[in-house]
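Lay summary. Proteins are chains of building blocks that fold into shapes, and those shapes determine what they do. In this project we predict the shape from the chain. Here is one chain we studied, written as its sequence of building blocks.
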Amino acid sequence: VQTTRKALLRYGLISGSLVIFFWCMFLSLRYTSALNTSVLFTLVPGLSGMYAALIVRERLGRARLLALSIGLVGAIWVIFRGDVQELLSLTWNRGDSIFFVGCLAMGLYTPLVKMLHRGEPMEVMTFWVLVTGIVWLLPIGGFALTQITWSGVPASTWAWVFYLAVFSTVVSFYITQFAIPVIGPTRTMAYSYLYPGLVLVIEVILGHGWPELKVIPGICIIIVAMFVLQRTPMGKGSD
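And here is the predicted shape, written in a compact code that computers can read:
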């Protein structure tokens, strides 16, 4: 797939935001919990909305701002399964600070795609975003590859690596980048509010039981927020 130096710079800026996020995420989990990072990640749609307003002049409007706030509440409700005491018991630590920096970077992702897309096929953009992402990652973690005993890596690990590489990365990024020019950066990133609810669905499918009734209000709040976000007309810079 041919490209130009200017295009590589565009793709490098986009992949840079993703690399910073994932690097911060994995580093932060050495010092904090997955629960804490889940809560912090709910800030990303709002951050994307603010960045989009500044970078691509997307008008959020009162309805969309309200929906983003409601979605934030709903997502946190589901994460904590309606347990207010568990929410209040959270403490800020070093890992949370690291992950928050990552969230600031991730918030730039969808606005940057909107700003830097030049009409090329999304397959091309996805390919070069992934390639430039590898270029960013090599100086950070390439040295560690020489320290791995590859023959000792179990087949199950390779299977999960394949899943993460194909579905969580290539397919996910392609769909996201395809959606951004169509529905806008804020709407696209707002779908991340659905993650906690989708996790509950997966748990049900895996036989872990249905969620408690006190979780249902959070799911309903998210559905309402998503409906408002998707029905609100797009402002300047989003069409």
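What the prediction tells us: The CA atoms of residues 80 and 155 lie 34 Å apart.
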